[in-house]
């Protein structure tokens, strides 16, 4: 419960943060809710921490080109209570309100959660279903990574070691309906299985799972079962039948493979019923 | 003055300092020149320690000293406080529990080296630099597996890993015959899982040694400072007790886990003398999960026989009780005298036999955890009787009522002699059940359950009754049962010259609210304001002696000792007052803080008498000055609280998730001094018992690694998991102690667990899932799997 020695830098601009981060031996500190426990258990022993929590531009939530841009250092509570998010992306507010407890929501950030890439984190399924892109910046400049390309494995992402997430760009589609439904792991309240689903007026459906396997992912087979069709009981049943098939399912002492896959089907059904 | 504190929900005196962050816990204490220690602990459950290289660590910044098992080879281990011999009469196996492992590590976390440095961070860095060469050996974690031929051996001196075996009750042949003749026998093999106690304050110790006076001080997060001093001085370090002060300052919860004398306490005291500087060690949360003595861990087979009328004819029980790698302080008493003796429950069962095999395994020690043995007994009985009702197709409440011990007050009627050694003091068992049923609305519930089942919803109700033996304990009785200490309590009442009162109690408050409850009692008995009473506890240099707080004993035993001292004060006060008022002592009476000559208006206040006792100018010639008495109270029997708990649950078919809809607890804890505090104790205990039923449980893998040693995996009950508790009470006073109190600390934890599990099973049966048992905790997956 005692971290190794590290240097601490409080960055005031994104450029400062990137400069201070260095290549591979530094870590970004935002809300600290994933990083600090890892430091205390010495699972992570960085040379230095770069604190980005005071960079105002990283915390802003604004409209841009008809979509919303959520700053990487926006806290879960910022997102849950933001009027723009609540009116234009209610799934984001809904899921933010289900993360941890009040203390966690007041400090934990969306960018921190995405960068940490816990395979049971809530945000991953949400950004996948929403078709979001992750804006990142590093010494070589800025780039955007589609959410569907971002998660590459357990605690692994497409983010380079010298890059930081600056914002999440989320398209807002008029008339879209979206929801995030999770079965919480009893102790951690992370997603034992979480399912995010979004249906746009053209009938296209995005379905994404977290907690189910090492990597949060879109379930294209389930999507195919309902996309372009009326969301009726038969279509939902077909999607549920397809859900969770063909992926390597996580096993822990709260869920066997069989139970977790069953939960995926149940929560997919609930998600689709919620947006039907 | 006339005071009226007893029976009132007076707000807790201690809360002001706790809620304003002014509590003074061991880790808050900083002594001049204090150093900090960290342990190097075995990552293996069973390993040969082939070598320890501390050379690199010695060179690390700030390192003061590093000790290993070799340095302590001549130092005794920590003792067990309770000896339970084999049925054969052979002595219990009690292998040395060394302060640091030497040669072998016998569980994950077994301490291998202790690193002391100027700061905690430096100590941690240096501990990480100690290199230990281990040879991993096979381990066993389950007690039923531990006794199998060929199981890895924990101690060479304990063949078959058996620490002792033990039997109580009617002869096995008689019980077998009764079972053979029974119209119905319910058999259940089940596990009462291992629990991590999870006190919010991790264990913390500071050892200090004064070279000038040759005196030691140990600050420790303990429930019983004097007991720690006794065990550490007499059995481990061989330091005379008058040279040792043990202080238990504010302590943040114990639940039993801070009763025991831990190796770290003795080690840190020993180290302080070696380096002539104070040493502090505070457990990390990971260490707390792995190493605070765990609770429960029984693997049991039980059979209950019934005649054709539904009367219980026999109960036969065999339990494998997991002791862990070493015998912790009270460990042998838990599955035996705190479990086997409670198997009568509230029922008239005429034949009972209980057989216990205590088993060493490569796991952390198991010892008393809130309820200690009594929850295991209650779980066994109440699961069996509910299951029997389901199997026989009778109502579970009717089956209980049919077998219930009739009411007795223990005064005009004798106590109830059980088949398993105890004599219950007083009881009205039917009363708590009837009250619980009325609060539930039983008939309406069954109607709602039927309707729910028709629409595919699974509602269930679960009942549990319990009795516990607490107010621990009559010394002669526990001595004959193997206790190596007496279990009386000490209460000193010192009236100051100004009439203010300091009360020194050997009980220790770590959440119970003694500073309030005890002050209510003393203020009422002396007729003075509560503000004039100070309750002092936790320091062996201030409090003469004491046995501490556990087994719901503080008020029943510690409070009784204080009452004895108050009686002596009043008696002496009468002599002083009689002298001043020129009356005979026999003509004096004391009430409402006034000494009065009977039948007159001649009186003196308590304050007058206090002052006179210390300024004895007009004073009886044959009387010593002063007003200060100390008393030992040794109870004549245990106390026997009892109650009825009822849970209502809804099980979600699709996921197996259990929602606890209602929880009704009707408890009879004897007389009540502070209803708010008793309610708080019941609420906390109920939450803890629900925790065992639905959420908690230590998991070891086959290599002896605890796989859920963090709050990310070990699920504690949270407020949003629980309904508003509905509590009801009944008062059947204890006939054998002066306050008529029975104890309330453990009741909630004892009654609640089987009620919840029974409710889930009832819900499943309502949907046609004839499930007999589900392993606790009843996680969603386990419940869902049971329905498949």
Polypeptide structure, described:
- The complex is a heterodimer of chains A (276) and B (788).
- Chain A is an alpha+beta fold and 276 residues long.
- Chain A has twelve helices and 14 strands.
- In chain A, helix 11 runs antiparallel to helix 12.
- The longest helix of chain A has 19 residues.
- The radius of gyration of chain A is 18 Å and the shape is globular.
- The termini of chain A are far apart.
- The model of chain A has no long low-confidence stretch (mean pLDDT 96).
- The mean pLDDT of chain B is 97.
- Chain B is 28% helix and 23% strand.
- Chain B contains 19 helices and 28 strands.
- Chain B starts with 14 loop residues before the first helix and ends with a helix.
- Chain B folds into three domains: 193 residues, Alpha-Beta Complex (Aldehyde Oxidoreductase, domain 3); 330 residues, 2-Layer Sandwich (Aldehyde Oxidoreductase, domain 4), CATH 3.30.365.10; 146 residues, 2-Layer Sandwich (Aldehyde Oxidoreductase, domain 4), CATH 3.30.365.10.
- Chain B is of the alpha+beta class.
- Chain B is globular and about 85 Å long.
Features:
heterodimer; A: 276 residues; five-stranded antiparallel β-sheet; four-stranded antiparallel β-sheet; B: 788 residues; alpha+beta; Aldehyde Oxidoreductase, domain 3; Aldehyde Oxidoreductase, domain 4
From the structure provided, what is the oligomeric state, counting identical versus distinct chains? heterodimer
User: In total, how many beta strands of chain A?
Assistant: 14
Spatial strand order of the main sheet of chain A:
4-5-10-6-7
How many domains of chain B? The number is 3
Task: Tell me the radius of gyration of chain A.
Answer: 18 Å
Distance between the termini of chain B: 69 Å
Low-pLDDT windows of residues of chain A: none
Class by SSE composition of chain B:
alpha+beta
Specify the number of helices of chain B: 19
